[in-house]
C-alpha cells in the first residue's frame, strides 16, 4: 500500500484532480443558465469546468452536473473522524453480556422526533428485519425495544423513556432543512437534562445520514451514528457504554 499522505482527486488519470459536482440554480434552462453554472463552478475552484448535464427541474429551476479540475490537495494526516472505539460484538455476545452483567433486559426507546416522518432508518436499526442482512435490535433476546415511530414530540419521548425505564433513547433525524435535525436534537437533550438528574438519564443516541459525528458535545448527546450504520454497531455500543465501560456501577 502507498505511504502517501497527500492525495489529489482522480478522474481519468492518477492525480489529475478531476471532480464532479452537482447543484441546482433558480433559473430556467437556457444558454445563459449553462454559463452561470460554469461561472459558479469556476468560483468553486474548478478550472477548467465542463458542463456535462443540465436539465430543467419544474418551472424556473435547472439541475447541473459539472466535471472539472481542482488544484486542492488532501492531507490524510490531518483528517479527523470519529472512529469506532469499542469492540463489535455478535448478537449472541451482546445477549450474553447483558444477561450476565445487567441481569435484566436492557430497555431501548426509539423514535423520529419533531415533524420528521422518515422512519426507514430507525426501523432498520430497531425492527427485526434490520438492514443489509443484519437483524435489528428487536431480534436481540436481552434487549427490550419500544419503537414509537414517526413525528413524536419531545415530551412524549421523555414520558415514554420514563415509563419504559429506558437505558437508552435512540432518536432519528433525517430532514436537515433549516438545521431541523440540530434544533430538534438540542431540544431533546435539553428536555432530558431538565426532566432527569445526571446518573438517572438514559444514554442519548441520535442518528441520521447528515449528522457530523463529532458534534456530540454541542448537541448534548452521548453518541451520533451516521450513514450506513448497522444494528450490530449500535448494540455493541450500548453494551460498551452502559455495561462494559461502567464496571463499578453494574458489578
Ligand atoms: C423514503 C423517503 C421519504 C419517505 C419516508 C417514508 C418513511 N416511512 O420513512 C416519504 C415519501 C414519506 C418522504 C417524505 C419527505 N421527504 Co423524504 N426521502 C426519502 C428518501 C428517498 C430515502 C430515505 C431513506 O429511507 N433512506 C434509507 C435509510 C435506511 O437510510 P437512513 O435514513 O440514512 O438511515 C441509516 C443511517 O442514517 C442511520 N440512522 C438513521 N437514523 C438513525 C437513528 C439512530 C438512533 C441510529 C443509531 C442510526 C440511524 O442508520 C440507518 C441504517 O443504516 C430520501 C432520499 C435519499 N435517497 O436518502 C428522501 C429525503 C430524506 N426526503 C427529503 C424531503 C425533503 C422530504 C419531504 C420534506 C418532501 C416533501 N416536500 O413533502 C417529506 C418530509 C416528510 C416528513 N414530515 O418528514 C429530503 C431531505 C432534504 C433535507 N435536506 O433535509 C431527501 C434527502 C430527498 C432529497 N434529496 O431532497 N421521504
Characterize the structure shown.
It holds the Pfam family OAM_dimer. This is OAM dimerization domain-containing protein. Residues 105-249 form the B12-binding domain. The chain is elongated. The model has no long low-confidence stretch (mean pLDDT 95). The protein has a five-stranded parallel sheet with strand order 7-6-8-9-10, sandwiched between helices. By secondary structure, the protein is α/β, with parallel strands linked by helices. The chain has helices at 31-43, 91-102, 120-126, 154-163, 180-195, 216-219, 231-244, 247-250; strands at 6-7, 18-25, 49-56, 62-69, 74-75, 106-112, 143-147, 168-172, 203-207, 223-225. 32% of the residues lie in helices and 21% in strands. Strand 6, helix 3 and strand 7 form a beta-alpha-beta unit. Helix 4 (154-163) crosses helix 5. 30% of the residues are buried. The protein binds cobalamin. Cobalamin is lined by residues 115-122, 124-125, 131, 170-172, 174-177, 205, 207-209, 225-229, 234. The site of cobalamin has 28 residues, from helix 3, strand 8 and strand 9.
Could you name the key traits of this structure?
single chain; 251 residues; alpha/beta; 5-stranded parallel β-sheet; 3-stranded antiparallel β-sheet; 8 helices; 32% helix; 21% strand; elongated; binds cobalamin; OAM dimerization domain-containing protein; KamE_N_sf
Amino acid at each position: 500500500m502507498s505511504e502517501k499522505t497527500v492525495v489529489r482527486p482522480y478522474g481519468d488519470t492518477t492525480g489529475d484532480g478531476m471532480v464532479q459536482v452537482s447543484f441546482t440554480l433558480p433559473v430556467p434552462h437556457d444558454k445563459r443558465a449553462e454559463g452561470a453554472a460554469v461561472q459558479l463552478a469556476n468560483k468553486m475552484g474548478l478550472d477548467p469546468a465542463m458542463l456535462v448535464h443540465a436539465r430543467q427541474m419544474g418551472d424556473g429551476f435547472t439541475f447541473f452536473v459539472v466535471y472539472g479540475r481542482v488544484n486542492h490537495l488532501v492531507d490524510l494526516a490531518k483528517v479527523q473522524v470519529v472512529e469506532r472505539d469499542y469492540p463489535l460484538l455478535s448478537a449472541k455476545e451482546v445477549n450474553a453480556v447483558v444477561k450476565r452483567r445487567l441481569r435484566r433486559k436492557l430497555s431501548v426507546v426509539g423514535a423520529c422526533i419533531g415533524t420528521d416522518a422518515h422512519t426507514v432508518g430507525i426501523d432498520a436499526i430497531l425492527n427485526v428485519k434490520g438492514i443489509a442482512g443484519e437483524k435489528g435490535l428487536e431480534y436481540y433476546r436481552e434487549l427490550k425495544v419500544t419503537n414509537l415511530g414517526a413525528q413524536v414530540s419531545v415530551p412524549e419521548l421523555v414520558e415514554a423513556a420514563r415509563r419504559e425505564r429506558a437505558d437508552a433513547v435512540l432518536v432519528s433525524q433525517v430532514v436537515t432543512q433549516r438545521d431541523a435535525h440540530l434544533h430538534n436534537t438540542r431540544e431533546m437533550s435539553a428536555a432530558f437534562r431538565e426532566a432527569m438528574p445526571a446518573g438517572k438519564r438514559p444514554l442519548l443516541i441520535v442518528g441520521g445520514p447528515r449528522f457530523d459525528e463529532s458534534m456530540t458535545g454541542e448537541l448534548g448527546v452521548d453518541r451520533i451514528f451516521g450513514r450506513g450504520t448497522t444494528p450490530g454497531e449500535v448494540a455493541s455500543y450500548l453494551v460498551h457504554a452502559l455495561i462494559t465501560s461502567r464496571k463499578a456501577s453494574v458489578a
